[in-house]
Amino acid sequence: MHPFKRLFQYSKNYQKDIGLGVLYSSINKVFDIMPEILIGIAIDTVVNKERSLLAKLGYNVAKEQLLILGVITALIFVFESLFEYLYSVKWRNLAQNLQHDLRLDVYSHIQNLDIAYFENKNTGNLLSILNDDINQIERFLNNGINSIIQVFLSSILIGIVFFILNPSIAVLSLLPIPFILFGAFYFQNKIGPKYYEVRENAGILNSNLNNNILGIATIKSFTTENYEFKKIEQLSSQYKKANYNAIKFSSAITPVIRMAVMFGFMIILVYGGYLTLDNQLNVAFYSILIFLSQRLLWPLTDLSEITDNYQRSLASINRVMDLLKIPTKRIDIGQELALRNIKGHIECKELKFSYTNHTILNNISIKINSGETVAFVGTTGSGKSTLLKLLMRFYEKNSGQILLDGKDISELNLSDLRRSIGYVSQDIFLVNGSIADNIAYGSFQASREEIIHAAKLAEAHTFISAFEEGYDKMVGERGQKLSGGQKQRIAIARAILKNPPILILDEATSAVDNETELAIQKSLEKLVIGRTTIIVAHRLSTVRHADKIFVFNNGEIIENGKHEALVEKNGMYASLWNIQMGEINLNLKLQNSIV
Ligand SMILES: Nc1ncnc2c1ncn2[C@@H]1O[C@H](COP(=O)(O)OP(=O)(O)OP(=O)(O)O)[C@@H](O)[C@H]1O
């Protein structure tokens, strides 16, 4: 489907506005060409006096004729201005409505896209679609449609007047129009792909800028400012070059059209002049033709701007529509789950998964009973977080099954499934609001008491109370004003407040000190009662009391059982444990020797 056709599907709620916009633009155009006709009538009045058109209509006194012309001129300008105001308001409001609808649709679509999409795409590029591309569409809608209507309508109206006044001149002066249109569309086709390239380059540039600003601390600490500057310089040059390519063509349109306009104008000037000298053409008609030829042909030079704007918008619409075409996962379909009935029994059966070709999880079969606390441990990159992502259906398994309370999660209502899980991830997302806002994120109805209670359980209350503003302290963008450990505790409090039947803590306490971790664990002991808890941890001391420990290695579970049994088994867990114990002992010895 043509991009504009798709865009106008958005406009179905605004059909009345579009109709009125077209009407106002058309009426304005009619008034717009009238002054040229009035000039002809004025010349007719002063040259032909009592033989003039107005005299034939009964106004014999020349000065009276001029007064009438003055009044008509004033009325024409008043109405022209009035309708200009009306169409401008209509089209610009329509542009606002459509860009608003489009932005919300795109945003909601992006939110429903799979996590996989975000892991493979640049956020900067998405931002550039949400902002630049939609703004470009808005700019086109602001005046583009009106310009197209007016250019075509004025050609038709003036063409009609020409034919009435002198058909032979009309034919000759309209001759350049097909060439002008052909030229405009020829260039338009040439420019289209170039503007798409411009938009793509803008997206890449944006994404790099975005990435660098987010990573400014790393850039500074590695003193890579020059390196990054050069990278941005190169990307900005590519953007500039893509624009140069487009400019080469878009700048050529107006001069080419001007040549065709000159040809039409010359015909009227010379041929019409001959006819007037030979008394075959009334001097007033000659003047009207001269003036109207300007009104007919010059607006066609606007075609260059219109096509330019149109092509830029087409590129933007394509990018927006391409994004809207990416399939999303419906979260509101599938078997419903009542939160209060979820027991939290989880079972994976011969689960296999790969992000690309490389197998990440191979033949995973585990059982987690309702209310149990289990731990996923193992080497880094062994697939622990990936299994959690499958559990929340951020990704779909390749084969095998994951069952929640005996039901295959791929058949469950995704929204219910995710609502049943409290997830504290490795990268914590804090909104730019207060600490209280962040704890209550997702549990928006929570009272201040409930928020404080959750914070106490997460060992966050003490540090929060130490802030002058307490729970109202603003955390800054992405929680920049808090330490890593503070952010983790707020995230835990948020999961506690959600009160889900299943709790997943993925390295949730990796950034807190040993003392705080111990305190959080104490709180968790109370918290895990009555809910299934999965803890991913590298520090084995934090999970030694788990009901079951699953040891991951290269996408497989190579051992599982209780801590003591696993230590006794003397396998991989035991060696990891011994290494960590060795480190602790070494630290203790070091501390003692310093003392
Ligand atoms: N989105 C992705 N696309 C492709 N490969 C990925 C993606 N996410 C993770 N991987 C790869 O999958 C493997 C398992 O990663 P995963 O995050 O599950 O490991 P992990 O056991 O949780 O590691 P860690 O303990 O370091 O957090 C790694 O080799 C990683 O590079």
UniProtKB/TrEMBL annotation:
PANTHER family: ABC TRANSPORTER, ATP-BINDING CASSETTE SUB-FAMILY B. It comes from the Bacteria. Pfam families: ABC_membrane (PF00664), ABC_tran (PF00005). Residues 37-312 form the ABC transmembrane type-1 domain. Keywords: ATP-binding, Membrane, Nucleotide-binding, Transmembrane, Transmembrane helix, Transport. It comes from Fluviispira sanaruensis. Residues 346-579 form the ABC transporter domain. InterPro entries: AAA+_ATPase (IPR003593), ABC1_TM_dom (IPR011527), ABC1_TM_sf (IPR036640), ABC_transporter-like_ATP-bd (IPR003439), ABC_transporter-like_CS (IPR017871), P-loop_NTPase (IPR027417), Type_1_exporter (IPR039421). Gene3D superfamilies: ABC transporter type 1, transmembrane domain, P-loop containing nucleotide triphosphate hydrolases. SUPFAM superfamilies: ABC transporter transmembrane region, P-loop containing nucleoside triphosphate hydrolases. One of its GO terms (molecular function) is ATP binding. It is found in: Cell membrane. It is a multi-pass membrane protein. GO terms for cellular component: plasma membrane. The chain crosses the membrane at residues 66-87, 144-163, 169-187, 256-277. This is ABC transporter ATP-binding protein.
